[in-house]
Here is the input.
Amino acid sequence: MSHQALFWRVVMQPTSFCNLNCSYCYLKYRRSSYKMSVTVAQSVAQSVFQAGNPVRILWHGGEPLSCGKKHFQSLLTPFQGLCEAHMASHYIQTNATLINEEWCRFFINNNVHVGVSIDGPDWANRNRTDWSGRSSFSRIMAGVSYLKEFDIPFSVICVIDESSLEKAEEIYTFFCNLGCSEVAFNIEEKLGIHETSAPDDSRRITNFWAELFRYWKERPNIPIREVDRTLRWIAAQEGPQGDPVIEDFFPSVAYDGKVVLLSPEFLDVSCKLYSDFCAGNVLDSTLNQICAKAKNLQYIQDYLEGLRKCKSECEYFAFCKGGQAASKYFEHGTTCATETVYCRNSEQRLLEGVLQSIEA
Here is the structure.
């Protein structure tokens, strides 16, 4: 029987704790050592089984490895049959500071895809310190060395702040030499408890993307997520058809089973307008049931209305498909907003920068 998939990805929070205190982190409770129960993981596994389509399980924030290998294994075990049937696959985003030989064997034995958070050379990681204010760079690089020693492919997420904007060549060269399989660049943005973003500067941001594309074109050693996405869109020129819809409710499951939709950045957030963004709890309902009722939630209704406004007002809508719910809320206080600094920095100026370099 055919059905429309309600989600293709699930973020899982194995622990709220993180051993680092990155200045741009959006999570409020990362000093608290709450751990996800096996019952929550079992409930999510059952939901994935019922979904009927392959689902990526994204283990993310706090620092997933800080929950320990034994506990983490207990959280992965309920998904074993789904993974063997190719209905689930595991991805982890880690700061890499805790990776050692035992963790590498864990990744291999459980077929876990690894993503590392690192912002470039040592100087670019000054925002990524531990709770004592000490640099984490050498510890991250030690973890990366273990991954390379065990031949474990790893992708990278890099946050670009104001000081990195004129350093596109140096940063790209660093990642080429690092040996990662792919790199993604997130321009620093206002999210959760993090109140600042990279400057809303058209010239500097557009030039960063243009320079990054130019260096990649000269030396396409590793894929860049944003470049690949932009080039695919330019080649296809696929415009939106009909009324905007949410194609993936992207549920995020907190350590206690609480579910928020559209963005993991809504975990730990409460406000008058949307309460705590909670769409349900996997201990009471399946993810399928939670997503099926999502359109009854005010922040989902507002987001859909915002998408309709974006489509009617913004010339970039065919490319970005309406932007991110989290940036709309954290910048404007409502998911019904349209253009954001995030839109300009990470969508509009990305497209302009790549087109600028292609035409040069």
Notes: The longest helix spans residues 341-359. The longest strand covers residues 88-94. The radius of gyration is 20 Å.
